[in-house]
User: Fold these one by one.
Assistant:
Number 1:
Amino acid sequence: MVNKLKEKLQSGEVVVGPFVGLNCPDLVEIMGIVGFDFCVIDTEHGPMNPESIQHLIRAAELSGMTPVVRVTEASPTNILRVLDVGAKAIHVPQVNDVQTAQMVAKASRYYPEGMRGAAVPRALEYGLKPLKEALEEANRDTMVIVHCENVEGLSRLEEIASVSGIDMIFVGPYDLSQSLGIPGQIMHPDMREAVGRALSIIKGAGKPAGIFVTSVDEAVQRIQEGFNYVAYSLDSLIFGLACKEQLAKIKESL
């Protein structure tokens, strides 16, 4: 299956999708039906693991949305397991040096581009497709996204962004603000400078830039700044705020 997300980004389109922290395939399917380009299924925060996310990945695929998974950490085993169950792209947190970026890129692809362990998992259609064709397709379609969310990583971002096999850099504003000593103050002057610097480096490397937002106004602002991969809020917050708004309207009428 072609990675539509990767194609859109390569053509310069803006893409939008939520983080998913709830183990609910129905919500994922609804998000795909309404038109989100991707969703980021989160195994870093919360209880989900490679086994529990398979149905979320299926729901995304069946509704026309690209399934992306945030792994728990930058280790080959974690990367292998989420790719094997069908993730088309991975988010890797806290990639703060070029050596880690190189390892992540190699762990995400098969020979000759990398060292990903070969088997016949769901991602390779359970061995029902010729192996050579399946491996080549996986290497072509897999998208590797690394996070810039630490001052250490920001200081080395030019090197990280230049690594072959790293397809995109994602700015994590909340962790970055913590690293700067101003937790949660994502519009603080120091954060504005840091995010602007990151964006300039990413664009200078010729790669798409991603960022997390929590409001429509913030999403529009980031797109205007030049970010073209916008992770919009998360499923529980989107659902919770919708419920709160509708309930408030009902109570106002009483």
Number 2:
Amino acid sequence: MVRVVLADDEPVIRAGVRMILSADPAIEVVDEASDGRSLVESVRRHRPDVALADIRMPDLDGLAAITEIHRVAPGTAVLIMTTFGKDAYIARALGEGAAGFLLKTGDPREFLLAVRAAAEGAAYLSPRVASRVIGEIAGGRLARAAAARTRVEALTRREREVLGLVGAGLSNAEIARRLHLAEGSVKTYVSTILTRLDVRNRVQAAIIAHEAGLADPDPSPPPR
């Protein structure tokens, strides 16, 4: 039996969610709360498997309640539900350690799936929320990687080799030994690379190397 504490300041919402959860005989709502403080106290008292909380409640919102719940009942997973899915709220909920984020306007079956998943130690995001989170993460990374690859296309093959080793954290002397070049030649390459990439220092160049996939994160020691 999955034991749930349900919190929302709207009695009608609580009644609706309770009815949805009652469709699964393996889920039991052991208590309800109308504000954040009452939710934390209920969780402390009942030690449920899952706390299902509205994001906006009086006397302690659902986001702030996550930290308190983790303090008083570390074994309780917290699911956040809301009628809106602002990115800032999603990011904060996940950052605070929420096990999932649900939209009240979503498919009622999502509540059952989310509660089961959270009780088993997994995470659950409403599909509409998940697509936005994945899009934000993947889109940002892919965009940076694409931009970095475009920038390094202006470099020669040798300059890309040098840039990759700069990204791996090697010094000019180490790069010279690795590529069998004079150290002065490496300095010249690095200077040219900084100019062509329009960056100020090696750190910025190294970031571009990583984003473009040129840097070896664990290079073998250069020959001596």
